[in-house]
Amino acid sequence: MALDSGTRLGPYEITALIGAGGMGEVYRARDTKLNRDVALKILPDAFVLDGDRIARFRREAQVLASLNHPNIAAIYGFEDRGSTHALVLELVEGPTLADRIVKGPIPLDEALPIAKQIAEALEAAHEQGIIHRDLKPANIKLRDDGTVKVLDFGLAKAMEPLSAISPALTASPTITTPAQMTGVGMILGTAAYMSPEQAKGRPADKRSDVWALGCVLYEMLTGKRAFEGEDVSDTLAAVLRADPGWNAVPSATPANIRTLLRRCLEKDVRRRIGSVGTVQFLLTEPAATDAVVPPANRWRERAVWAVALLALAAGLVFLAARKQGDRVLPLVVQFQVEAPPGEFLPGANGAPRFAVSPDGQFIVFGSTLLGKRDQLWVRRLDAPAAQPLRGTETVPVRGIAIQQPFWSSDSRYVAYFDEPASSLKRVDVSTGAVQVVTQVSGNQYAGTWNSGDVILFASSATNGLRRVSASGGTPTQLTTLDRSRQETRHLWPVFLPDGRHFVYHVQASGGTPSAIYLGELDSPQHTKLVESDYGPQFAAPDLLLYIRGQSLMAQRVDLSAGLLTGTPVLVADAVIATNAGRIAVSASNTGVLVFASGPSEGAKQQLIWVDRTGQMQTPLGPPVGSFSIALSPDGRRVALADVATGAAYPDIFVYDIDRDVRTRLTTDPAPDAYPVWSPDGTRIVFRSTRNQKIALYEVLASGSVPEHELLTTDAEESLVPFDWSLDSRLIVFGRGRDLWVLPMTGDRKPVPYLITRFNKIHAALSPNGRWLAYASNEAGSYQIFVQSFPDPSLGKWTVSPAGGVLPRWNRNGRELFYLDTAGRIMTVPVTTEGSFKLGQPVSLFTMASLGTSSVSDRGSPYDVASDGKRFLLSIPQAAPISPPLNVVVNWATRLLAKGSR
User: CA–CA separation, 118 vs 135, rounded Å?
Assistant: First the structure.
């Protein structure tokens, strides 16, 4: 609706129409109260007719109004008059960047300062968790005084409908409804800057803004759009498949700016520059060279990028200095290390497993090739890329094969836990020679290695810290739990540089807060330093790093007094931490800090029916984040653990197949997982880690009663439900590596069923309750066994001759299914009445994505219908995305600058 000059909207009087676009008409107006000119953006009719969108827009606008930066055009308010709704914006005089580009390419010495100010605006917004989503030259103003102002920050998200017409249409604010797809020039003005993930309808993140910034910089330097087409579809096709015309970039452009452009416009979001801060840094310090990178040599391109960045970082770190008062402060340099191409950095709660060497020259991290192979990689800080660490290749059989690595004090060796081999190993970084230090059992919680070749590590087998010689031997107990203080576990030890003192995490229950303690070898004394829900890290010479909320803090430690001194200083926000208390942080003795922050996007799963020949049927419902599923006894519902919108950890859901409706059963902030149905389909038992305890709970499957009944808990071992007997009398569950039974009548006191030194997972009861199938690694790799139940001494049979997990019974009791190491669904004829008998396994079909290497130790990506004629699978839709490792050289300079020392 056009507004005439003189029209009033609250205190604002319209004076002139400035422009119009997909996000509405923009007017110049006079603020009659404050006597200043403002811009009014009148929202389009298609937008204002949706009350839910208006309410959502108000909430988003409140967040956007918090942005306060000299390069961001401010939001002043929100006004209504009947059906007219308007944003009140800062009026920025001057042409847009699009107006300037029309006149021709912009010289490098003019383009780089403009790009730098755009990057500064983006970085300020990203620090507040706000993504622009629609950055383009038309949204950038150039003031006469040289100031650059970025407009319409975050409005793309605010303008999105609650119920998207299609993902591709809602990825941008300009393309919102078919009715708005008439302004072809306007549409192309947005599509040309959309990242590939937006073009595919996927969520935008800060890397999408990096892409758009690359498009804008390319256009400034060349006078042409990086991606063009005759219409929207052609333009989006170019974004997804074509490369920019690199020959159009002026020949005088420095090589590092060329590489910067290529890395900003990397279609694979995992290989794209992950931080605007990195872009800003390179824009500030262009290299003095005009070498051209051959566009066809992708490896060479990545090497040039890495060498340019790292050489520049090294030169700045070791040669440059900044003076502040009487102190000379080295420059802080930041960059990121990402997973190798096609790889994923695995870890609990999205926290990658990594460690920086004490001398600050190397970073070691665990990586997995789509769950088929775990391996350690080492990245030299002055090298272009990481290299696989020979000798550490391990095939996972319990989800993740390599646990948290840690370095020797001389930075020559890396120690790590090999889960399948149940051993602590060390590897020589230069030769790849591997040595077994000791055999271990239970879950391992990282370790630390001092100059005297003493290794400390934490294990669920004892829950206290243990010590062992790095040259090999039998571990001995170092710390013991203080039950009077309700301590449950000692975890995450870290040696201090003196090799005698160490810090570690003490977890407690019953209202006793968890805390970080200071200990000393050969001394029973330990001193509480600070309360924290997460473990510590330490940086020489005397800085303790710990988490407060989601923020990483640093504070001095006075060893002589055994206490923290000074004021804690913020180091980084949104650092990833695990349920077990590990923080994704590592610090060298030489001023290098590595940490992981931000979300870890796991692969989305699709539920789908498959018949006995492997023929897929119509997918069920939208993609889910759940790997583990459980089919209800009647086959009409699916229980799964998934992360709800806005939640940090998974809850239990029930998906109704016929009605295509999901019901959320749990809402507790703690992770809930591993649902198991009752035989009548009315209840679900699941595992939860509430109140810092691992416990089994029961909930109504209808969701009508939100209360959850506590069934059993354990302060020392992990508990996971496996199966519920058809007569409803008992539940089989895992306690640590053993199998237990929980009676559902009487006193409900758990009793052990099978106790051995080997892992036992995926237990399933036969329909008549006389036999228990399970997977165990007693033969070295996981095999399927069947044992008499409830007395295991009456018989035992090996079912799978070549490995297997996840046994499932046909309800008729005459067939047993399992998944073998090649991802084949196998069937074995069995006799369960009278004495147990079994035939030869036969392959039904292959589903490689469900191979044992990608199966966790307890979750199940498939289930069998009660008639045994079809299978419900949860198959991955795309590769997961892990957060990059943030590397900060001379990070403590910030603390010195703040006067914390």
Answer: 9
The token duo for 478 is 């170092």
Tokens standing for residue 365? 């991290």
Q: Where do the structural domains in the chain lie, given as residue ranges?
A: 8-296, 324-600+882-897, 649-860
- In terms of residues, how long is the chain? 901
Angle between helices 206-222 and 255-264 (to 10 degrees): 130
Q: Spell out the residues 6+ positions from residue 511 whose beta carbon is closer than 8 angstroms to its own.
A: 486
**Which of 127-131, 502-506, 650-654 shows the lowest mean pLDDT across its residues?**
127-131
Q: Please count the other Cβ atoms lying within 10 Å of the Cβ belonging to residue 735.
A: 20
Catalytic one of 134, 205, 209, 820: 134
CATH of domain 649-860: 2.120.10.30
What's the sign of the alpha-carbon dihedral 713, 717, 720, 725?
Answer: negative
User: What is the DSSP pairing of strand 140-142 with strand 148-150?
Assistant: antiparallel
Query: How remote is the C-alpha of 760 from its chain's centroid?
Result: 29
Q: Identical fold at 324-600+882-897 and 649-860?
A: yes
Q: What are the pLDDT digits (tens) for 762-783?
A: 999 999 999 999 999 888 778 9
**Closest C-alpha to 574, from 590, 561, 563, 585:** 585
Neighbours of 706 (CB within 10 A): 12
Q: For residue 619, which of 652, 656, 657 has the smallest C-alpha distance?
A: 657
The residue written with tokens 């419900």 in the block is: 872
What pTM did the predictor assign? 0.50
Superfamily of domain 324-600+882-897: TolB, C-terminal domain (2.120.10.30)
- Which residue, chain included where needed, has tokens 């290794």? 455
Cα separations (Å) of 858 from 245, 449, 735?
50, 32, 12
* Cβ neighbourhood burial of 468 (10 Å; 0-12, 13-18, 19+): buried
User: What fold characterizes domain 8-296?
Assistant: Transferase(Phosphotransferase); domain 1 (1.10.510)
pLDDT, tens digit (0-9, with 9 covering 90-100), for 503-520: 999 988 767 888 999 999
Question: Is 134 an annotated catalytic residue?
Answer: yes
Q: What is Dmax (Cα atoms) for the chain?
A: 94
